[in-house]
């Protein structure tokens, strides 16, 4: 063993000892400070990353719904064309920057929102925290354990607070499931089975974009599954301790006989079932295509390109500190979009599903489902549809609940999360909806451990990744 390895082990032992002492301090109230601009009475917000999510959810929606208490004081992006489009689209009367440090050092910011490429989140989070600024970050918090540790260290030193934008927690159907779990209707949890299906429109789209490159997204075990792992952590109320996973790239990337540079210039449009015509989506033409000249980013990139190196099928086993076990899978080329989730308890079972075609009274356009999930302005409720939630105690008949169906705004969670962040309005304080830096860390650590497990073929212990000490009961 070389001296470097010895030093790393010595440090790890030290930080774990220190971690045990500060474990409680990491479970901090995620509510932000109430510092406001004295002149306007509003919170000064800056945003880095002006892609589609920054424009819609964090930009236009925030400006329209919370303009009475929020003002944009800075927008930042490396692509100056996208930056100018975003300023107009959002309706933000503020300066723009292609240099983040310049924005941070010249603008008075109360709250920083980070919506950049996943692998760069840590850079902006840490710089914001180092300036004692409150930070909201899009999922995943980061993409590897070293960056995660850097964020944890920065949070411990900062007067600012980091909050994870885990809007799934606030989703109305997921909140209902959490409420049922807390009533002990099925007794103490012993296991959860979660199968998530991305269809050939939504799932494939990740492989057209930068998400298909591991060094940028950390794989979908981070970019997408962070949502799911956080839901599981939240449902269980305990920390993950060990992960084993399998995965492969078998559909997209090099797994095809032909490929092109991008869909617009491809000669295989008639034979490719995944051909996507970006010219029919004016927003993307204005936001991305018109600004390719600045950074070369192709929004309609070929999903058969050989550089793709993430998994397109994944299955994960997770063991928790309270002995609950999870089986999870993510499919990226399903004919339909949805999920199945089942909670097994000592005294019964709870389950629900979404998007399973033969369980629905009518089918929806698969190409439009993701748009409905992301849309905060319409399709908020469908009176003729419902989430079927079933509970059954051992030796008893089952109970069936027809829970009101909500699809848009991430099952109605977007508005509820922003209400909590910006208006201090809580749905149910006892359910611990807000997610802090520890929650963000544990969600990505499951994904990081799963990726490592696939690469090595070995189970990975969460405690070996950072100095976070797993707790049996997160809120006890």
Automatic annotation (TrEMBL):
GO terms for molecular function: nucleotide binding. This is Tat (Twin-arginine translocation) pathway signal sequence. PANTHER family: BILIVERDIN REDUCTASE A, BINDING ROSSMANN FOLD OXIDOREDUCTASE, PUTATIVE (AFU_ORTHOLOGUE AFUA_4G00560)-RELATED. InterPro entries: Gfo/Idh/MocA-like_OxRdtase_C, Gfo/Idh/MocA-like_OxRdtase_N, Gfo/Idh/MocA_Oxidoreductases, NAD(P)-bd_dom_sf, TAT_signal, TAT_signal_bac_arc. Residues 178-462 form the Gfo/Idh/MocA-like oxidoreductase C-terminal domain. Residues 44-165 form the Gfo/Idh/MocA-like oxidoreductase N-terminal domain. It comes from Lutibacter flavus. Pfam families: GFO_IDH_MocA, GFO_IDH_MocA_C.
């Amino acid at each position: 063993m070389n001296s470097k390895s010895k030093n790393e082990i010595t440090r790890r032992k030290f930080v774990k000892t220190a971690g045990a002492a500060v474990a409680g301090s990491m479970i901090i109230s995620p509510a932000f400070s109430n510092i406001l601009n004295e002149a306007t009475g509003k919170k000064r917000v800056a945003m880095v990353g002006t892609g589609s999510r920054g424009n819609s959810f964090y930009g236009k929606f925030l400006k329209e719904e919370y303009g009475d208490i929020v003002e944009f004081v800075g927008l930042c992006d490396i692509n100056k064309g996208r930056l100018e489009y975003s300023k107009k689209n959002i309706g933000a009367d503020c300066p723009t920057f292609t240099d983040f440090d310049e924005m941070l050092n010249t603008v008075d910011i109360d709250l920083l929102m980070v919506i950049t490429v996943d692998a760069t989140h840590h850079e902006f989070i840490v710089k914001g925290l180092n300036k004692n600024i409150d930070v909201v970050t899009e999922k995943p918090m980061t993409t590897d354990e070293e960056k995660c540790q850097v964020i944890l260290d920065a949070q411990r030193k900062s007067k600012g607070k980091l909050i994870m934008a885990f809007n799934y927690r606030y989703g109305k159907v997921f909140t209902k499931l959490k409420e049922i779990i807390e009533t002990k209707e099925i007794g103490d949890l012993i296991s959860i089975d979660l199968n998530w299906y991305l269809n050939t429109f939504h799932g494939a789209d990740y492989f057209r974009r930068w998400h298909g490159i591991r060094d940028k997204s950390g794989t979908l075990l981070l970019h997408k599954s962070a949502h799911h792992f956080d839901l599981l952590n939240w449902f269980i109320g305990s920390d993950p301790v060990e992960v084993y996973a399998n995965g492969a790239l078998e559909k997209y990337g090099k797994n095809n006989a032909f490929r092109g540079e991008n869909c617009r210039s491809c000669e295989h449009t008639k034979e490719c079932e995944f051909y996507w015509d970006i010219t029919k989506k004016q927003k993307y033409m204005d936001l991305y295509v018109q600004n390719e000249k600045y950074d070369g980013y192709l929004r309609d990139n070929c999903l058969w390109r050989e550089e793709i190196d993430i998994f397109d099928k994944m299955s994960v086993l997770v063991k928790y500190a309270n002995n609950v076990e999870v089986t999870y899978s993510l499919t990226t080329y399903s004919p339909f979009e949805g999920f199945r989730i089942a909670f097994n308890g000592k005294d019964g079972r709870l389950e629900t599903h979404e998007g399973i075609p033969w369980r629905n009274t009518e089918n929806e356009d698969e190409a439009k489902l993701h748009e409905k999930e992301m849309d905060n302005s319409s399709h908020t409720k469908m009176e003729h549809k419902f989430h079927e939630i079933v509970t059954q105690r051992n030796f008893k008949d089952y109970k069936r609940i027809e829970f009101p169906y909500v699809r848009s705004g991430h099952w109605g969670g977007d508005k509820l999360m922003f209400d909590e962040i910006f208006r201090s309005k809580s749905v149910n304080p006892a359910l611990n909806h807000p997610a802090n830096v520890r929650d963000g860390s544990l969600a990505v650590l499951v994904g990081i451990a799963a990726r490592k497990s696939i690469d090595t073929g070995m189970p990975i212990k969460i405690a070996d990744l950072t100095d976070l000490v797993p707790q049996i009961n997160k809120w006890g």
